[in-house]
Structure formats: structure tokens, C-alpha cells
Task: inverse folding
């Protein structure tokens, strides 16, 4: 898997990054290559023909993709998270309709949870799911920042639970097929970074789905948030942003080795202060990597301590990626400061880590609440 990811990074992602970052276009060639290689089957279950990988495999592949082009890592990660959510309690109809085509590289899905009204509180959807009959439901509401927006074959989205008895924070996850009547896409969001992910708003006006498209049962919402959505999402994002940090570190290392002064023939690699700064940077990236791998492995084992480590992994990688790119820019001098050069792009992309929900502040707050024995989702 890692070998295939590295090949696609070299052959496709790094090239597509230049155009996608400049034009703000979706990473179609990267996603096509990932589908063709079988990598989009990563988290699809083995009994559906997929590879059945968990969080560790996801973190590793996203890390490789993040080194090549983080927007592609983000698009790929959202597909894998959506797949894991569908797979968690899949019915035989859902296996045939979604997971088997995903395993064959024929279907792209993605996650659409965030809403303009509740923002970073992605676990409180206000989109409604109204039963018309036992078999048919209507969805009304608006999703925002949908990665792979309008390019996926299906969207895993959250709605307020259909049941009248359900409390306000209960929700159902559903899968909606692209092109269903009542779906209307907003224009591509013109982001500072992550410009190849096609973030869009999705308006749902009486969008009709069948009972087959509802995942799990009413009342499953907390189980989904803490057992599938958050763990897989945090892992995919942690891997992708780690890839950004690693690429920046590699760029700084190359620059220090290659920058030769004409007055004395030495390179920056011989300046002890810069050696020290580079070493410090490596240690920062490495300790973040080990936290991410450790958290993902705990998650795969179903260890109940996993969730706090996963919260910490995504919170820590956000600072690691931003700080590493920032430091790499300093080490690279004026050349590193080039407008829209590699480090400029990495800086813009890394910055998204802090604001993608669960955001850095919210993750640290959740850890604190857990340590204090308070309910994590208390707002
Ligand atoms: C590049 C990108 C891709 C994305 N892709 C997807 C996607 O595919 N699917 C999807 O569902 N969503 C996606 N999102 C949305 C994302 O996950 C967030 O939900 C969204 O960015 C929140 O934005 P907001 O402007 O509404 O934040 P707000 O809710 O307005 O928050 C603003 C700030 O206030 C802080 N804040 C709010 N409440 C608290 C609190 N209680 N404690 C501490 N701090 C708090 C937040 O941490 C944040 O820093 C994406 C976002 C980006 C930037």
C-alpha cells in the first residue's frame, strides 16, 4: 500500500498540485489514480472485496499522500472515513450498493457533516430527516465545506434523528447518492489553502432517500461519533498533516545541504546553529509521528484509551505542521519565501489543520473534560 502510494505521489500528485493549487480545481487525476491502484478500497471490508485496513493503515497512506499533495490526502481521507462509516453497521443492501463498488475502485464517497449553523460543532446537525412512510424519507438542510463536493458518487451525511422522541443532539447518518433530486451545490469555495479539495456547500431541498440509505439505528449517534467518525477522521487528517510537516522538513534539509556561499565555499549544512535547529525540527516531527501511529494502533485494537490519544494526535499535528513549515521557511531564507512556492503552499495548506473540526481548541477542551470526568460533548 505504502509503495503504491509513493508511486502515485511521484507520478501524479506532485504534478497535479501545481495546477490545482493555482487554479483551485479538484484533484481529479490524483483521485482517478488512487481508484485505479486499489487504494480507495483501503477501509472497505474484506468480505466486500476491500483491504479491510483500519486506522494505522489509513494514517500511513494519508501521510504519504500528504507529502505529495495534501488536498489529495484530504479528498482521499474523506473517502476512506465515509467508507468506514458505511461499513460500521452495513446492511447487505449497503454492502452491495456502496462497499462492493468502493472495493472495486468504482465508487467515491465522502463525509458531509458540517453545517453553517453549528460550525465546528459538527456533531449537532440541524438538517432534518422526515419520514414520509416506513420506506421513504425527505432530507432538508444545508451542509458546508463538503470535500469532494459534487465529484463523489455518494455523500455520508448526518441529519437530526427522524424519531419524534429523539433529543436534539441525536442524529442519524445516511448515504445520499450524487444527483438525487433536491441536491443543489454551491460554487467551489476559494480557500487560502487546500485548494484542490473542492469544498462546497450542499443544499438539500426535499431530497428523497429510502430507509435502506440510513446507517445504523436511531440512537446510534454517540457510538458513530466516538467509534467511527471521529477516530477515522482524526487519523486521516493527522496522517495528511504529518505529510505536510515531513515534506517541509525534507525541503529544509535539502536547502541547508545545497546552499553554497561563494565567498568561502561552505554550505549552510556546516552552520552549527542551523544543524541544531534542523535537529529540533526533526524531533518535533518524529514525536508527532509516533503519537499518531500509537493512537492509530490503539484505535485498531479497540483500546478504550485510544480516543484521547487520537484527539491529541490531531491537535498536536496541527501545531507541528504549521510550526515545521514556518521554521523550514526561515531555514530556507528568501527563496523559501517565494510567493506560491512549495513552502508557501505548504504553509497555506497546513493552516487548515487548526480550523478543521474537531478544531485544535475543541480537541484540547475534550481531553480536559475527559480527565475531569465531565461529559465531552457538553456544548
Ligand atoms: C479545508 C477544509 C475542508 C473541510 N472539509 C470538510 C468535509 O469534508 N466535511 C465536513 O463535514 N466538514 C468539512 N470542513 C468543515 C470543518 O470541519 C469545520 O466544521 C468548519 O471549518 C468549522 O468552521 P466554522 O467557520 O463554522 O467555525 P466556527 O464554529 O465558527 O468556529 C470558529 C472558531 O471558534 C472555535 N470554537 C467554537 N466553539 C468552541 C468551543 N466550544 N470551545 C473552543 N473553541 C471553540 C473553533 O475552534 C474555531 O477556531 C472542512 C473545513 C476546511 C477548512
Result:
Amino acid at each position: 500500500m505504502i509503495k503504491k502510494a509513493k508511486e502515485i505521489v511521484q507520478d501524479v500528485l506532485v504534478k497535479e498540485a501545481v495546477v490545482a493549487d493555482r487554479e483551485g480545481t479538484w484533484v481529479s487525476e490524483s483521485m482517478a489514480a488512487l481508484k485505479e491502484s486499489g487504494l480507495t478500497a483501503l477501509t472497505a471490508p474484506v468480505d466486500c472485496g476491500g483491504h479491510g485496513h483500519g486506522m494505522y493503515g489509513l494514517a500511513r497512506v494519508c501521510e504519504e499522500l500528504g507529502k505529495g499533495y495534501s488536498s489529495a490526502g484530504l479528498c482521499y481521507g474523506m473517502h476512506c472515513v465515509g467508507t468506514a462509516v458505511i461499513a460500521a453497521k452495513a446492511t447487505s443492501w449497503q454492502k452491495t450498493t456502496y462497499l462492493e463498488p468502493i472495493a472495486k475502485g468504482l465508487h467515491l464517497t465522502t463525509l458531509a457533516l458540517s453545517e453553517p449553523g453549528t460550525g465546528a460543532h459538527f456533531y449537532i446537525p440541524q438538517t432534518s430527516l422526515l419520514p414520509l412512510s416506513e420506506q421513504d424519507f425527505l432530507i432538508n438542510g444545508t451542509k458546508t465545506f463538503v470535500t469532494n463536493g459534487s465529484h463523489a458518487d455518494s455523500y455520508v451525511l448526518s441529519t437530526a434523528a427522524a424519531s419524534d422522541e429523539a433529543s436534539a443532539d441525536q442524529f442519524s447518518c445516511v448515504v445520499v447518492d450524487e444527483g438525487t433530486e433536491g441536491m443543489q451545490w454551491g460554487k467551489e469555495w476559494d480557500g487560502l489553502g487546500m485548494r484542490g479539495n473542492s469544498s462546497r456547500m450542499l443544499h438539500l431541498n426535499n431530497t428523497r432517500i429510502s430507509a435502506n440509505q440510513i446507517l445504523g439505528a436511531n440512537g446510534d449517534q454517540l457510538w458513530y461519533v466516538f467509534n467511527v467518525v471521529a477516530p477515522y477522521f482524526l487519523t486521516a487528517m493527522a496522517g495528511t498533516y504529518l505529510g505536510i510537516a515531513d515534506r517541509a522538513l525534507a525541503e529544509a534539509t535539502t536547502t541547508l545541504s545545497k546552499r553554497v556561499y561563494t565567498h568561502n565555499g561552505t554550505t549552510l549544512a556546516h552552520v552549527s546553529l542551523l544543524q541544531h535547529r534542523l535537529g529540533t525540527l526533526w524531533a518535533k516531527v518524529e514525536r508527532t509521528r509516533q503519537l499518531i501511529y500509537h493512537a492509530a494502533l490503539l484505535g485498531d485494537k479497540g483500546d478504550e484509551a485510544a480516543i484521547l490519544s487520537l484527539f491529541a494526535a490531531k491537535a498536536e499535528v496541527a501545531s507541528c505542521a504549521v510550526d515545521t513549515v514556518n521554521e523550514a521557511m526561515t531555514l530556507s531564507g528568501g527563496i523559501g519565501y517565494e510567493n506560491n512556492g512549495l513552502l508557501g503552499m505548504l504553509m497555506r495548506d497546513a493552516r487548515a489543520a487548526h480550523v478543521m473540526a474537531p478544531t485544535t481548541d475543541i480537541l484540547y477542551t475534550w481531553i480536559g473534560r475527559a480527565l475531569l470526568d465531565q461529559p465531552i460533548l457538553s456544548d
In short: The radius of gyration is 21 Å.
